[in-house]
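[Discussion] Sanity-checking designs against the backbone

I'm trying to build intuition for which residues belong where. Below is a structure token string of 73 positions. I'd appreciate it if someone posts a full sequence so I can compare it with mine line by line.
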């Protein structure tokens, strides 16, 4: 085999390894970022749920206050 063919085969192998390594690294980074985003979404959903519960409690408290005010009149 000539030197040019050997160099071409080595370059092909090097390029393939580099490409596969890049794909794997990119995939890992994407998965990490997705996990971080999922954590943020979970926190946000938790806040929304707690806010909804507090709004309901405030409605009940306001109704009770109105009832007490009517009794005092």
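Best answer:
Here's mine. Compare freely.
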């Amino acid at each position: 085999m000539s030197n040019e063919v050997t160099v071409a085969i080595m370059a092909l192998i090097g390029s393939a390894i580099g490409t596969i390594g890049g794909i794997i690294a990119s995939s890992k980074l994407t998965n990490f970022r997705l996990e971080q985003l999922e954590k943020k979404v979970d926190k946000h959903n938790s806040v929304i749920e707690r806010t909804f519960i507090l709004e309901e409690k405030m409605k009940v408290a306001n109704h009770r206050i109105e009832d007490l005010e009517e009794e005092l009149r």
